[in-house]
Amino acid sequence: MSDFCIGDRVVIREWDDMLEEFKATVYQEGIDMLDGCIFSHNMKHLCGRTATIIDIYGNGILLDFDDKSGDIDWKFTTNMIKPIISHEADVALYMKLVNKFQEKQVIVAIEELSELQKELCKALRGRKNTDNLAEEIADVYIMLEQMMIYFNISKADVDSMISTKLARTKERYGISNV
Questions:
Q1: Helix (H, G, I), strand (E, B) or coil at 125
Q2: Listed ranges 34-38, 81-85, 126-130; the one with the highest mean pLDDT
Q3: Which run of H or E residues covers position 52?
Q4: Does the pLDDT of residue 1 top 50, yes or no?
Q5: Exposed, middle or buried by CB within 10 Å (0-12, 13-18, 19+), for 33?
Q6: Cα–Cα distance list, 59 to 65, 73, 172 (Å)
Q7: For 18, which of 45, 54, 121, 131 is 20 to 30 Å away at the CA?
Q8: 59 neighbors 36 (Cβ within 8 angstroms)
Q9: Torsion, Cα of 99, 6, 63, 32 (10° steps)
Q10: What is the pLDDT, as a whole number, of residue 127?
Q11: Which residues contact 130 (CB under 8 A, 6 or more apart)?
């Protein structure tokens, strides 16, 4: 469906940007997003707001807005949102690093995993430092992206595996859809 995944941070596109892109398909109800959905005039107040993707279904996306305003009943599509951070530039950088350092990046990934492990152990011993934890989680995330490139594993394959594992976990622990 898209390059978006559950957990991605996004922003609702600005009305004028969508209007310019889809100007040939503006109706009284709103902007026809050419994906079977309308960005209605009633949704204008959402433009520019940030959110986290909490579900993806069919051609729809469910968002949890950062300001906890309760705006959860709207159906969004990928034409209505954009990533807060462009992953295209990140992927280009990751590819350059993998091409330059090749298997050495696997060693760096192992080192970063070890550093996160060390911070987690410290936290369990009562020496939690959220800044250090966030830094090590970020390092591991960056290296995991590079490992996907190095081992030629697509984001879609990883997303599919995540979905499978989460479904298995829900079933195993009797957790209904949340």
A1: coil
A2: 126-130
A3: strand 50-57
A4: no
A5: buried
A6: 19, 15, 28
A7: 54
A8: yes
A9: 70
A10: 92
A11: none
Structure tokens at 77: 């599509």
pLDDT in tens, 21-79: 776 566 666 666 555 677 777 788 888 888 888 888 877 888 888 777 666 667 788 88
Residue 26 DSSP symbol: B
Q: Smallest Cα–Cα separation from 140: which of 98, 172, 95, 105?
A: 105
Q: 27, 69, 73: which is closest to 48 by C-alpha? A: 69
Q: Which helix (H) or strand (E) element contains residue 162?
A: helix 155-173
Three-state DSSP class for residue 142: helix
- Which residues touch 78 (CB under 8 Å, ≥6 apart)? 1, 2, 4, 35, 61
